[in-house]
Amino acid sequence: MRSTNTRVGCLNTVKGFITLLLASVFVIACSTNDGEITDGAVTFNAEGESSDPQLGAAFEELVNVRVISDVDSILTGSTETAQITAYITTNANVPTAPTIIDVAADGGLLQNIAFESDLNGEAGATLELTRDFRNRDISVEVTANGSSDRAVIRATGTEISLTGRLTVVVF
Fold this sequence. Notes:
Elements: H1 2-30, E1 37-38, E2 43-44, H2 53-59, E3 63-69, E4 73-75, E5 81-90, E6 102-105, E7 109-111, E8 122-128, E9 136-144, E10 147-156
Parallel strand pairs: 4-10
Antiparallel strand pairs: 1-2, 3-5, 5-8, 6-9, 7-8, 9-10
């Protein structure tokens, strides 16, 4: 009886050793010296980061921003407006899912601002210059996920002309 138990114990030990050996071979086959583990198509480092940029795009979408205006210039002090449209797309030029955006202008008044793009990747705002008579270029910038673009609208129309003598004496 004793020899049977010894054989069973020995077989269990051998079976456990083979299992451990196969597991070690599997880990060695799937691991490189710097701790990278592969699944056959995508490589992950020890921190779980992928070397495949397309895999990262699913989690942190890379975007392109294009900003356009429906007009090149608007008259100062008038009721004219410029419709600003931002197109938010992936690097493959596919509209992004709704994306939070920042909109800023260095002049005029922005109204009706969409702070999130729609399902077509579009967002917009209206630029107006009511009661603003300064001639200048106005830059409207849109930023999304670290990418940005700007449209420049020329504000024109205000002119002041003075007539009089060439010499003026002030007392």
